[in-house]
Design goal:
- The complex is a heterodimer of chains A (about 550) and B (about 350).
- Chain A folds into two domains: about 180 residues, Orthogonal Bundle (MetI-like fold); about 270 residues, MetI-like (MetI-like fold).
- In chain A, strand 3 and strand 4 form a beta hairpin.
- The two termini of chain A are about 35 Å apart.
- Chain A has about 550 residues and is an all-alpha fold.
- Chain A has 23 helices and four strands.
- By secondary structure, chain B is of the alpha+beta class.
- Chain B folds into two domains: about 230 residues, P-loop containing nucleotide triphosphate hydrolases (Rossmann fold); about 120 residues, Nucleic acid-binding proteins (OB fold (Dihydrolipoamide Acetyltransferase, E2P), Beta Barrel), CATH 2.40.50.
- Chain B contains eight helices and 20 strands.
- Classes of the chains: A mainly alpha (about 550), B alpha+beta (about 350).
- Chains A and B meet through helix 9 and helix 10 of A and helix 2 of B.
Chain lengths: ~550, ~350
């Protein structure tokens, strides 16, 4: 106890000796306290006991909670199953078309999550291309089944990335050792591969369930009468101006999300034991039996075709006059979304600003938590990652509550939209920066200090140049994520600061399919352009979407 | 030699990665119960050969036979060629017991048999008390023993070992390699061992196959390979050698070689006069004569020289001595502390210790 205190005193002394570094640390801490912690506290403090009693007495709210949890369980199970199949096929199986499969899995990650919901309606809705045009059915996709389908497609790539990461970190010599001792494919898969991948699978599942639980766009578009907590909270504010009740619903949502988040941090840490057996051996994994290989290929092909058809439908929808009724081609949708409205322009403008801010804060925070020792380092790390656990609805309401009066009166400004985008994307930017920092040997930094440079100077002269590609990657990544955020932004925009993601939702709700798809299509094109630009500038030095 | 049964046989085996032939038309026979070491620098194809025998890679050309049976198309899980991996490849999510029992379970042994056999091999390798531990709780040496136990317990036809000692401390390596050798002799297990450490290969093997660039350049006992290297590469890679090149002078019934200024007498070798010869002399074969020591001046292969450098290595001293236009490495063993030599010295090279590596007629 005393030793810990003494170490902390020593850390503080070291900080005081480097005032520039100390100032940077204080600035980052203040930023996080004001924009991450304060809104959460305001939401938690908003409702009174009376509101909580009301919540418990309303059957509809209890049902919404049950629905949220049900959807989280269903979608996580299916998304992780598909993600595992995809990851195992792409990491372990020798199948054709891998680059194509990877690209297709990237699409849901760089587009607004409710695009899958939108496309589900266009494919299987009352005027659906498949159900109505091809099969002549009257099928109703609205409800839990349609939502389940859309959420699976929206979030399986997240599971795929997590599982692929852990699968490729398993040394091939372990599976080969199993074969060498007499295990056939299935035995090795069951006794070696799956147990070793379990921490990674669990971590991916928890991450997916946080996202499904808090997702707002797809339930809004596709839920029909299947209400979930996120949509209920939105309706409480927009329909009834009952901010306190919305705060209650968000708090209920926060509990499991926070639990999953903490559990995920634990499992992510356990991934380390996979690499216990030392240096890489240059061994190639054994070829899978042909039957397994082709089954995996078939599975991937089906998933990829479904995802591709979703984006194809969005692209086609953007160019037809009236979905399901008038199939003639037109550019009118774009004329309206690109030139009559400022939403897309706002998205790009705010997104760029937010990305710059996030990349900066994330890089500095990562440097501080990974390379410096000071009291509260763990808290800083947790605070930077916390927005991952916060339902977007909660952040949005929190911002409304926290920044509607002096000294921080930001309501209705572009600043508040930028800030909320920055906070929403901070965790991914931070994880990216931490991962890049881990690739730089500490000895490089020690060499700089050893030759007489201060901490801050070392950061600016040595670390920043080394991190510039990672910084560029983080910038583009957070930009793409920023233009796609919806659930928090939707509470903060005004007609002057409207952004595309929210407008797509509005247009879809009113049945303007052409305009909604045109805007969604434009947003995806912007994201692809940003990624293309990054590839052009940095090449393959930064691996995005591989966290 | 008695007619030993051939256990493992490679006939004209080639393995390519792209256009690069990692193993190039290799033929090798391994008799039963022998300890055969594949020795060579990194990238010479020795590990690839082991993996071909285990079935991790498919053979491009040629044939691998175990017990006379062609195994090219037998998958690794049906080969009974248990391997000790360089990184041990212990299953991190299983206990020591479960690791060792893995192969038995795959062979569907009854629980009683599994326990009995695992206990047996645990005793054999002195792993008592570690059964319930997880591999990462063990020391490197213990992990190595578990890997060995896991391979031995299935009673494989052939034991394969891929640089099993390279991840261990130098001191420990020495002890374990002796244990591995004793165990192999005790069990009479046909073993193919891969290493880049020539000292290890000399200490442990019945037969050494020296490899370079995907080919076997010499096969023989440790003595053969050390004292009668087939090429400059082998002489240099296994131990160290002094190399000199010169022209053969035929002089009655003794062969002499003029190596630029000085002439070395080799004794009766029957080399053709006028040919170019490449000679190798081990550093420990050369006698070093200090200034105070008396010696008959008229003895053969006597060279005057100067100590250029020396390096004290505990049990011996290595000198670099300039003599006759060449720098000679000379090792002197120290039985007791003595002053290191400096300045003018003399060398004597016994003629029977001069090895002719190559001899080409003009």
């Amino acid at each position: 106890m005393l030793a810990v205190a003494r170490a902390q005193v020593r850390d503080v002394r070291r900080l005081v000796r480097e005032p520039a570094l100390f100032a940077v640390l204080l600035a980052v801490a203040a930023f996080l306290l004001v924009f991450v912690l304060l809104p959460v506290i305001r939401v938690l403090a908003a409702p009174s006991v009376e509101h909580w009693m009301q919540y418990l007495q309303r059957a509809a709210f209890i049902k919404a909670m049950r629905n949220s949890l049900l959807m989280a369980v269903l979608s996580t199970t299916s998304a992780v199953s598909v993600g595992f199949l995809y990851a195992y096929a792409l990491v372990r199986a020798d199948i054709p078309g891998k680059p194509l499969f990877r690209t297709v899995a990237l699409l849901p990650l760089i587009s607004p999550p409710f695009v899958t919901g939108l496309a589900t309606i266009l494919l299987f809705g009352r005027q659906g291309l498949v159900t109505h045009r091809l099969l002549g059915l009257t099928f109703d996709p609205y409800g839990w089944h349609g939502l389940w389908f859309a959420q699976t497609l929206a979030f399986f790539p997240l599971a795929y990335l997590g599982v692929a990461g852990v699968l490729s970190s398993i040394s091939p010599s372990l599976e080969l050792a199993a074969h060498n001792l007499g295990a056939r494919w299935w035995a090795a898969f069951r006794t070696i591969t799956v147990p070793l991948a379990t921490p990674g699978i669990t971590s991916a599942a928890l991450l997916v369930s946080i996202f499904v639980l808090a997702d707002f766009g797809n339930p809004m578009v596709l839920g029909g009468s299947f209400y979930v907590l996120a949509t209920e909270a939105y309706l409480q504010i927009i329909g009834r101006y009952n901010t306190e009740m919305a705060a209650v619903l968000c708090t209920v949502l926060l509990v499991p999300a926070l639990g999953f988040f903490l559990a995920q941090r634990y499992w992510l840490g356990r991934r380390a034991y996979v690499t216990v057996t030392g240096r890489p051996t240059g061994l190639e994994p054994r070829r899978l039996p042909p039957a397994v290989r082709w089954a995996l290929f078939g599975g991937c092909l089906i998933v990829a075709l479904v995802v591709a058809s979703i984006y194809l439908v969005i692209a086609v929808g953007a160019f037809v006059r009236l979905w399901g009724i008038d199939w003639s081609l037109t550019l009118g949708n774009f004329a309206y979304t690109l030139f009559k409205q400022r939403d897309l322009y706002n998205s790009v403008r705010f997104g760029l600003t937010a990305a710059l801010l996030t990349a900066l804060v994330a890089t500095v925070a990562a440097y501080l938590t990974q390379r410096k020792s000071f009291p509260g380092r763990g808290a800083l790390d947790l605070l930077t990652l916390l927005p991952l656990a916060l339902p977007g609805t909660l952040v949005g309401i929190g911002f409304v509550l926290a920044f509607n009066q002096p000294p921080l009166e930001l309501a209705g400004t572009a600043t508040i939209v930028v800030m909320v985008m920055a906070i929403r994307t901070l965790p991914v930017g931070y994880r990216l920066a931490v991962a890049s920092l881990h690739q730089i040997e500490p000895s490089i930094e020690w060499a700089s200090r050893n030759l007489g440079a201060s901490s801050l100077r070392t950061f600016v002269r040595i670390m920043l140049p080394l991190l510039k590609y990672a910084f560029a990657g983080g910038f583009i990544y957070t930009f793409v994520k920023s233009i796609n955020t919806l659930s928090a932004v939707i509470f903060l925009i005004t007609p002057g600061t409207a952004v595309a993601s929210a407008s797509i939702l509005g247009l879809a709700e009113q049945g303007y399919w052409g305009l909604a798809t045109a805007l969604a299509f434009s947003l995806i094109v912007v994201a692809l352009l940003a990624l293309g630009l990054l590839r052009l500038v940095v090449g393959r030095r930064v691996q995005l979407f591989d966290l | 030699m008695s007619t030993e049964r051939i256990h493992v046989e490679l006939v004209g085996v080639t393995k390519r990665f792209g256009t690069f032939a990692a193993v190039n038309n290799v033929t090798l026979t391994v008799p039963e119960a022998r300890f055969v070491t594949l020795l060579g620098p990194s990238g010479c194809g020795k590990t690839t050969m082991l993996r071909l025998i285990a079935g991790f890679y498919d053979v491009d050309e040629g044939e691998i036979r175990i017990d006379g049976r062609r195994v090219n198309d037998v998958p690794p899980d049906r080969r009974s060629t248990a391997m000790v991996f360089q990184d041990f490849a212990l299953f991190p999510h299983m206990t020591v017991f479960e690791n060792i029992a893995y192969g038995l379970r795959m062979r569907r042994f009854s629980q009683a048999d599994v326990t009995r056999r695992v206990e047996g091999v645990v005793r054999l390798l002195g792993l008592q008390g570690t059964e319930a531990k997880s591999p990462h709780q063990l020391s490197g040496g213990q992990q190595q023993r578990v890997a060995l136990a896991r391979a031995l317990v299935v009673e494989p036809e052939v034991l394969l070992m891929d640089e099993p000692l390279s991840n261990l401390d130098a001191k420990f390596r020495l002890r374990l390699r002796t244990e591995i050798r004793q165990l192999q002799q005790q069990l009479g297990k046909t073993t193919i061992y891969v290493t880049h450490d020539q000292e290890e290969a000399l200490a442990i093997s019945d037969t050494i196959a020296v490899m370079l660039d995907g080919r076997i350049v010499q096969v023989g006992s440790a003595f053969d390979v050390y004292y009668a290297p087939a090429s400059r590469f082998v002489a240099d890679f296994v131990g160290t050698s002094n190399f000199v090149e010169g022209r053969v002078i035929a002089d009655r019934d003794t062969t002499r070689v003029d190596v630029g200024g000085i002439t070395l007498t080799l004794g009766p070798r029957g080399l053709p006069a006028g040919a170019r010869a490449l000679l190798a002399v081990r550093p420990e074969a050369i006698h070093l004569i200090g200034p105070d020591e008396s010696c008959e001046r008229e003895v053969e292969n006597y060279l005057r020289g100067v100590v250029n450098a020396q390096s004290f290595m505990g049990s011996r001293v290595r000198y670099w001595i300039g003599a006759g236009g060449t720098e000679w490495m000379v090792d002197v063993h120290l039985a007791a502390p003595s002053r290191l030599l400096a300045g003018e010295v003399a060398l004597r090279i016994p003629q029977e210790r001069i090895h002719v590596l190559e001899c080409q007629e003009k």
